[in-house]
Structures are given as C-alpha cells and as structure tokens.
Amino acid sequence: MYKASNERYDNMQYKRCGKSGLLLPRISVGLWHNFGTNADLENCKKIIQTAFDNGVTHFDLANNYGPEAGSAEINFGKILSADFKGYRDELIVSTKAGYYMWAGPYGEYGSKKYLTASLDQSLKRMGLDYVDIFYHHRPDENTPLEETAGALDLIVRQGKALYIGVSNYSAGQTKAIAAIFKRLGTPFIIHQPCYNMLDRWIENGLTDVLEEEGLGCIAFSPLAQGILTNRYFSGYPADSRVGNSIFLPKERVEKNLSISKQLNEIAVARSQTLAQTALSWLLAHDSVTSVIIGVSKAAQLKENLAALDNLTFTTKELSTIDKIIGADKKHST
Ligand SMILES: NC(=O)c1ccc[n+]([C@@H]2O[C@H](COP(=O)([O-])OP(=O)(O)OC[C@H]3O[C@@H](n4cnc5c(N)ncnc54)[C@H](OP(=O)(O)O)[C@@H]3O)[C@@H](O)[C@H]2O)c1
Fold it and tell me: What is the distance in A from the centroid of ligand 1 to the CA of 175?
C-alpha cells in the first residue's frame, strides 16, 4: 500500500495561477503518452507516485489520451483508487474535451452537448466527482463562443469542475472568451499552450493577453516531445516516442538534432542536462506558471525535477540560445 513521502512538499516550488487563488507546482505531469492501453500499469504507478512524493500535485489529462482514447483516464482512475484515496484534496486533476472522441455529430469540438457529455464520461473513467480544471481543448469556429463558454460555466455551477481553462486558443480567441466568462462570473484562470525553446508562438500576442486578463499559463510539450533532451543523441531507442507515436515523426527530430546538440553545450556549461535547461528556460519566464512534462520513466521525471535547482540565466546564455535556435527567424519544430 502506497504511503506518500512526508518530505513531499520540501523541494517543490509553487506559483499562483494568474490572479486566482490556485497555486500550481512549477512542474506538472501530463498523461498524453505512456499511460494508455499498452502501458505497463506498474510503471505508470511508479511515475505518479514519484511525482507526488516530490511535490507534483498537478496531473493533466484529456478525454482522448491513450491510445486508445479514454484509456489514460481509466488507468489514472485505477491508480487513484488503489493508492491516492486519502490524497484527493492534495491533488489538482485536469481534463479536457475538444478533439474527436466518439462517432456522430456530438463527439468533438465545442457544443454544449459534447462538452457536458464528455466531462461526465471522463469523471466516470477516473472515478472522480469533480475535476479541478476543465479545459476546452481547441477552439471551434463553428460553435458560438457564447455556447462553449456557457457550457463551461454550467459545468462549474454543477460542481463538476472548480476552474476553467482553454487550450490552443489564439490571443484574439482568448480575449473574446475571457470577456464572456467575465460577464458570466466563471472562474476562467488558465491557458494551456504549446511553448518551448523551439516553439515561441505565444510570445506574439498571447502572453500579453494572459497578463492583461490575469490568466495563468501552463506550457505543454516543454521538451518538444523529447527533441529538447539527449534522447536522440545516439540513434532512435526502440522504446522512444519516435516510432511509437504518429505525433513525433523521425524527420522532425532529425531536422532539429544539430540545434539540440548545440543547446546541449550550454546545458553542460550550466551543469545541467539539456532537458533541465529547456525546463529552466521556460520557468524563468514570468509569464509561465507551470510546465507539463511527459515522461516514460520515473528516472526521467527525477532528472527533470532537478531543473528547479537553477532557474537563472545570464544575458549571454539567453542570447546564445536565441542565436542557436534562430528565434528572430521564427524557427518552428
Ligand atoms: N493541450 C494540448 O493540446 C496538449 C498537447 C500535447 C500535450 N499536452 C499535455 O502536455 C503533456 C506533456 O506533453 P509531452 O509529452 O509532449 O511533453 P514533453 O515533456 O515535451 O515530452 C515528453 C517526452 O520527452 C522525453 N523525455 C522527458 N524527459 C526526458 C529526459 N529527462 N531525458 C530524455 N527524454 C525525456 C520522453 O520521451 P520518451 O517517451 O521517448 O521517453 C517523454 O515522453 C501531455 O502529457 C499533456 O498533458 C497538451
């Protein structure tokens, strides 16, 4: 029977999510990959337990995480009921709806019909009464924003979510939905964008909107799915995301390999691994509340948590990083 470490809050740092009352750990763990049907449940348990033992209170899911879609929530539910029964009030669990989940016209996007049904299904899969944060996973131009916002507001009033977030919304879309939430009095507190050294799109307007609206920012794919680590420095390991997921084509890794190796030299000079430097770089930004990392092993998680030991960069380090990446040339992964 798992018992959480008594020292679990000693080393983690927490940051307020925008202007809300919610504190999030600087490093959160996501279950997009490595928690699906074919995952080894013992390995999954070890990752979640190691995270919680080190102060990671926040776990990020979505209806479609797996594969198969839904299986990450089912496995997370199994872990919660086996090991975390007494710890629900110490956990921030998020899930999302927006991408394809079931057949027919009501299984994706942003209608009230889809969002309310999807969250009910997610709660059932995880064995929870409520989630802490419920996200609209992607914008839907064909559903009135008022309807999507209204459905999310209803979900909070029903007690099925405490806070609301959006993901993959542009600066303009975020501003527009924030205005509706303000009218409704909805606790809209967070945006979840892709953000890492190689993908800087949020710096072109979104971070300003988040600041103006008092919203938190939790960065997904902070390691560019493993490109910003030493994972591919000597080939393509059989158990790596390349080869096991359509979301990380080998060509994307190859295109960025020389950049990663150059960034690694900066990491070594900072006495960090590349993964640690990539996370520290994000966490050094005022706009970033937390980063959601993915890991396939507890050892990766432990390595990544040590990023918190050095979150400062010299001006020279920052400009060298920008030069390597060609940030001024709008590099994209
Ligand atoms: N809202 C959205 O649309 C959206 C989209 C994507 C992700 N997300 C969220 O963000 C979370 C994280 O995304 P992500 O998995 O792409 O994040 P990531 O942290 O950029 O990449 C995770 C992968 O990097 C590799 N890795 C991690 N630490 C490592 C280390 N120390 N050394 C070597 N390799 C290491 C592992 O690859 P291997 O598996 O090969 O070991 C791991 O699976 C997801 O779980 C999800 O919660 C949200």
Answer: 28
